[in-house]
Amino acid sequence: MATERTFSMIKPDATKRNLTGAITKMLEDAGLRVVASKRVWMSKREAEGFYAVHKERPFFGELVETMTSGPTVVQVLEGEGAILKNREVMGATNPANADEGTIRKVHALSIGENSVHGSDAPETAAQEIKYWFSDTEIVG
Ligand code: DAT
Ligand code: MG
């Protein structure tokens, strides 16, 4: 499998509980390398743009409100098969369905406050990395 980059976010529910280090360690322990990282308190407009694919969903308002409720840590992760690997370490969207040992099983509070985001495909990974980072901010 090829070395890939994916986009990850540690969401406000997790930063508020001081879990940035604990979650980053779970990502690193899975073989992912943090090649870019910054803390941002996203605006409503940034959250709406980032999650535009979900704008017709009934939970969109709640999603934007949650994502703007505190600081987020946005990261680029690099590794073999990084996109799928990150999704595996994250666990299912609803923590009630997440496998043991996954970030969402261990740390998420609910389906809405589920602690982490990860890109789901090469196209979204490229788009999402570009949404938050310039090329010079990524140091492999
Ligand atoms: P994922 O974050 O696992 O890729 P997704 O892309 O389907 O999941 O949804 C994006 C986010 O929207 C998800 O992390 C939390 C929120 N969300 C999804 N379904 C929801 C629901 N039924 N109720 C509340 N929030 C939801
Ligand atoms: Mg998604």
From TrEMBL:
**Locate the Nucleoside diphosphate kinase-like domain: which residues?**
3-140
Q: What is its EC number?
A: 2.7.4.6
Q: Which cofactor does it need?
A: Mg(2+)
Main localization is cytoplasm
List of residues binding ATP: K11, F59, R87, T93, R104, N114
Any single GO CC term annotated in Swiss-Prot or TrEMBL for this entry = cytoplasm
Task: Indicate the transmembrane segments per the record.
Answer: none
Q: Which reaction does it catalyse?
A: a ribonucleoside 5'-diphosphate + ATP = a ribonucleoside 5'-triphosphate + ADP; a 2'-deoxyribonucleoside 5'-diphosphate + ATP = a 2'-deoxyribonucleoside 5'-triphosphate + ADP
Gene3D superfamilies the record matches: Nucleoside diphosphate kinase-like domain
Record GO terms (molecular function): ATP binding; metal ion binding; nucleoside diphosphate kinase activity
Q: Which GO terms describe its biological process?
A: CTP biosynthetic process; GTP biosynthetic process; UTP biosynthetic process
Keywords per UniProt: ATP-binding, Cytoplasm, Kinase, Magnesium, Metal-binding, Nucleotide metabolism, Nucleotide-binding, Phosphoprotein, Transferase
Q: Where in the cell is it found?
A: Cytoplasm
Q: Does this UniProt record's set of keywords contain Transport?
A: no
Active site at: H117
Tagged with keyword Cytoplasm: yes
Q: How does it assemble?
A: Homotetramer.
Under PANTHER family, the record lists: NUCLEOSIDE DIPHOSPHATE KINASE
Q: Which family does it belong to?
A: Belongs to the NDK family.
Describe the task this protein carries out: Major role in the synthesis of nucleoside triphosphates other than ATP. The ATP gamma phosphate is transferred to the NDP beta phosphate via a ping-pong mechanism, using a phosphorylated active-site intermediate.
**What is the official name of this protein in its record?**
Nucleoside diphosphate kinase
Q: Which organism is the protein's source? A: Rhizobium mesoamericanum STM3625
